[in-house]
Structure prediction request, 307 residues.
Amino acid sequence: MKAVVLGAAAGGGFPQWNSNAVACRRARAGDAAARPRMQASLAISGDGQRWFVINASPDLRQQIEAQPFIQPRQGLRSSPIEGVMLTGADVDAIAGLLHLRERQPFTVYGSDRVLAVLEANPIFDVLARDCVRRERVALNAPFEPRHVDGSACGLEVELFDVPGKVALYLERGSSPADLQGEPGDTVGVEVRARGERLIYIPGCAQVTERLKQRLAGASVVLFDGTLWEDDEMIRLGLGPKTGARMGHMSVSGDKGTMAAFRDIPVRRKIFVHINNSNPILLDDSVERRLVMKAGWEVAYDGMEVSP
Ligand code: MLT
Ligand code: MN
Prediction:
């Protein structure tokens, strides 16, 4: 199995278009310790030739131009991208589908809930139905994605529900029940091949016992690293919401991700979907040193994470 991070930042990217905060200014100025990052996405492959993209970020077009392995190699029109798997219906997970118009065949894999969002938004019909298949994936049940030519890809994939939140633009009420949504609104992806297990969870509100059991023994886990502290957006004057309100647990603290993973045996742990306010993005920050001391890596665009 091959796996490469196409984008390591949360929605908005790093730097974010309207942020003039210090970290974003450093990234814009070309500071080597504040490397820019595109919005979260992971490419996976069973044969190293044909690829599936987990989440089509709004930066997908640039991500393709940045990574030769997902660029066309044959004929006048072609793509090594055989499919897109979706972990939710957030803008940063689906907007990039619009970059994939132009009548190139591929398959979109998603839960019932996420595909229903695409169905309800006619703009996604630019992906012509006779060309781009939409495949409903049952939760917690392994399946083997197929290449466009019908061949098996050599990866066993499973979508599983995780505690999360409905997409921001689909929020209707503000009670916890309204916000948390239904199973399938937020999912993780487990990819298995030759005894190796890679797990990708860009958004997660809580590490439950059930999730711990799934994570145990994984070869590599790429996990929600949105915020350092639950109230950092408020504290830094960047916005009114806590991480919990956005459906993201935080990296630090007693109830944070580092604490939750302390007793979960995982070979390699990597933070992804990192918000531009999170100081772990900066190579020279105290917070970066702390996560590394706890055995975590911080993803960057182009990072090889093949198990
Ligand atoms: C999130 O991860 O919380 C969402 O991507 C936020 C958003 O849609 O901007
Ligand atoms: Mn997001």
Notes: The chain has a mean pLDDT of 98. Residues 112-120 form the longest helix (9 residues). The pocket of D-malate (ligand 1) is lined by residues 10-11, 90-92, 168, 203, 246-247 (CB under 6 Å). The radius of gyration is 18 Å.
